[in-house]
Amino acid sequence: MSQERKDRPAIAGAAVDAESGTEGVVDTDKAIFALKVMRDRGLISKAEYERRLAALENKPKA
Fold it and tell me: Which of 10, 27, 40, 53 has the fewest CB atoms found within 10 Å of its own CB?
C-alpha cells in the first residue's frame, strides 16, 4: 500500500453521521427503490412493503 493511500481519510461511518446531525436522514428515493426491488424479488411481502413505505414518510428526507 502506498503512502498516499495511508494518508487518505477513511470513509465516514455512522458515528460521523451522528456527530454531524444527519443520523436518521434517509435518501427516500433510494429507499423506495430498494423496497420495490425486495418486493419484486419476493424478499418481502406486499404488506411488509406497505408498512416500510409508510414508515419512510415519517423520516427526515435527505
Answer: 10
pTM of the model: 0.54
> Residue 60: which region, alpha, beta or left (left: phi > 0; alpha: psi -120 to 50)?
beta
Q: List beta partners, residue 61.
A: 26
- In whole angstroms, what is the distance from residue 52 CA to residue 35 CA? 8
The residues spanned by each domain of the chain are 24-62
Alpha-helical regions (H) of the chain: 3-7, 14-20, 28-40, 46-56
Percentage of the chain exceeding pLDDT 70: 53
